[in-house]
Specification:
The chain is an all-alpha fold. The protein has a domain at about 25-63. It is about 80% helix and about 0% strand.
Amino acid sequence: MLDEQLAYGEEPTNASRRQIVADPNQREEILQRVASFRAQQERFMREREDFAAAELSRMWGSR
């Protein structure tokens, strides 16, 4: 359905996008993937903050 809209040069609407992901199994999988991605990004953010804090304390401690 989405391919048909694009073939006719129509812009897909939010409603048409939701219809494509109407299958509950697909929807649940997408939600799980999004949650996993967010958790990974939060972990990366914490690691960067910890690294930056350690580097700053190392730099200030060597003065």
